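Stress up-regulated Nod 19 protein
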Amino acid sequence: MARCFQGWVFLLAVLVLALSTPCSHAHLKHKKFKTKTGVYLSPKFVLEPGLSSSKYFYNVHFPKGHIALKSFNAEIIDEEGNSSPLHEVYVHHWLVERYYARKGYVEPDQQLPQQLSESDVIWLRNSGMCQNGALGQYFGLGSETRKTATHVPGHYGIEVGDGKGVPEGFEERWMLNVHAIDTRGVEYDLGCTECRCDMYNVSRDPSGQPLPAGYAGGLTCCPDGAKCRLKQGFGGEKKNHYLRYTVKWVDWSESVVPVKIYILDATDRMNHSAPTGAKHNCLVEYDVEKSCNATNGCLDNKWAKITMPTGGYVIYGVAHQHIGGLGSTLHGEDGRVLCSSTPIYGKGKKAGNEAGYVIGMTTCYPRPGSVKIKDGETLTVVSNYESTQMHSGVMGLFYILVAETL
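Predicted structure tokens:
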């Protein structure tokens, strides 16, 4: 009887061990993380009626160490900490970029990234295919910033601060680019926010060359310091502003699954015949021509086919569009919809619900494992705008997070 009892005990122990192993593994993989939060302010920037301000702030406050970023949210506020409404301070964009800098190196004030010393700064781009310095940011939004979800779900995260590949004598830093336009008292709000060249009285590019034929508007015509035309006799005070940004993260561990950032551009025109492989010419901006006068059915459709070097599972997706945007869709090679993202337009006056402005973008959080991109798969990004009137300097970007494993 004793031997029989001992046998049952042994079998029970084996069974418990067998059942507990996968559960322990699952717990390790999906354990709860302690999320940390930091709230920071950018350096001050000063606005006055009609002014376009595009400032570059280097080595800004940011969480340190080997971490997984979980979200980045931001908004422009005034001196008293109040949210600045879009009908006064239009958020063209804010961008967050990562780089290595030589220890002790001080970035010259307000120089463009490409003007910094190449021997002292190494830029760390996302995994997207755009070249020539375009769209390398880790995070970035525009007027939709207050109503667009940015959180990375579950046990996924954007890995930074791992120390791998850091050259001796260098350290990780972060840069903010904040582009805001003060539209108080301007003649034509949309003309100013779409950076129409005639509204800013700009006829030459930064190098002094005449603008390309047909260039109606875009970033070239609303650089830092440019002034949009004001109504006759309008006067207004200068005001101090800041970008208030909130970062959430968890400490890195084996339980976190890393995701890659891809930013796809509807203006990307791939050159497959390039001698060293496909080249990506991402224009970032484009114009929408007026095509009809109807109240509906006037549609401008811009699309691009982009081949992904590697695949994985889509964890998050969101598009970026300007006023006039009707939505953007990312398709797989077989035509299936990977993600659709639509602008949310405001209906009021308060900050976060400004009538006529894009105040948010809908996002995609697919069920893990349900949306997969194959290695080498060619995706199609489609950007739709209404075309009852002309729009200049619009964008059709798609930001996705992709995990190689679940």
